[in-house]
Design a protein that fits this description.
It is elongated, with a radius of gyration of 36 Å. 10% of the residues are buried. The protein has 217 residues and is mainly alpha-helical. A three-stranded antiparallel β-sheet has the order 1-3-2.
C-alpha cells in the first residue's frame, strides 16, 4: 500500500560553486526523492499526518557536501481509498493473528504448568481421558523432565531452595538424623545473624540437650 507524493522545492548553489558533473536540478530531484522514500519507509498509509510531517522535516533544507547543493521543499501526501482500505484490512488480519497466537501461547503455558506438576497432571489426565488410565505410567515417564513455564516475576531461587529442603527432609528418616540436621542448621543461622530463625530451629531440639548455640561452629 503506497502514498501518492507531491514535492515542491527549490534548489540553489553558492555563488562560487559551479556544477561539475550533472544538472543541479537533476541532483535536487534525486535528493528530494531519496529523502522522501527513506522517510516514508518507516510509516504506514494509516499514519498519513505523521508521515507527512516527518517528510516535510526531512526535505525542508539540507546541504550536499559533494556539490554544495542547498534545497528547500514541501511535500504533500495522499492515499487512495482503495489503498487505505487494503491497509486497514491487513491491520485487522494482523491483529487477529496476534490475538490467535496469544491465545495459543496462553493455552500452551497453562498445559505446560499442569503437566509439570505430578499432582495436577494426574487429576487433569483422569478428567480429560478417563478411558485411558492405563497410559498413566507411560505419560509419567515421558513427562518427568518437563519444567513449569518460566515466570519473570517468579522467584526461581526460592523454588530451588524449597525443592532442596523437601528432598533433604525426605532423606532424614531417624530422630538422630533429625537432631544432627537441626543442630547444624541452628549453628549456621546463628553464624548468619538470623536470631529469630535460629531460635525457631532450636525449639525443635530435644529438651535434654544443651542449646546448640553454645557449640563451636
Amino acid at each position: 500500500m503506497f502514498f501518492t507524493v507531491y514535492i515542491n522545492g527549490a534548489w540553489r548553489l553558492p555563488d562560487d560553486e559551479t556544477p561539475e558533473h550533472c544538472d543541479p536540478a537533476v541532483r535536487a530531484r534525486h535528493q528530494a526523492r531519496d529523502h522522501t522514500r527513506h522517510t516514508l519507509s518507516r510509516y504506514s498509509v494509516l499514519d498519513l499526518p505523521a508521515a507527512q510531517d516527518a517528510v516535510n522535516v526531512a526535505v525542508a533544507r539540507w546541504h550536499d557536501p559533494d556539490t554544495g547543493l542547498d534545497m528547500s521543499g514541501t511535500v504533500q501526501l495522499t492515499v487512495e481509498k482503495r489503498q487505505r482500505a487494503l491497509a486497514e484490512e491487513h491491520l485487522r488480519a494482523e491483529q487477529s493473528g496476534d490475538l490467535g497466537r496469544e491465545e495459543i501461547r496462553r493455552q500452551l503455558t497453562f498445559l505446560q504448568r499442569i503437566l509439570a506438576d505430578p499432582d495436577q497432571r494426574l487429576v487433569w489426565w483422569i478428567d480429560k481421558y478417563p478411558d485411558r488410565l492405563g497410559e498413566l505410567k507411560e505419560i509419567e515417564d515421558a513427562l518427568q523432565r518437563i519444567k513449569p513455564p518460566r515466570d519473570p516475576t517468579h522467584n526461581v531461587l526460592r523454588d530451588e531452595i524449597v525443592r532442596f529442603i523437601d528432598q533433604l527432609l525426605s532423606d532424614i528418616r531417624t530422630p538422630q538424623q533429625r537432631e544432627v540436621f537441626l543442630r547444624a542448621f541452628a549453628q549456621t543461622l546463628e553464624a548468619l545473624g538470623s536470631a529469630e530463625l535460629k531460635a525457631a530451629a532450636t525449639q525443635w531440639l530435644p529438651a535434654n540437650h544443651p542449646d546448640s548455640g553454645s557449640a563451636t561452629v
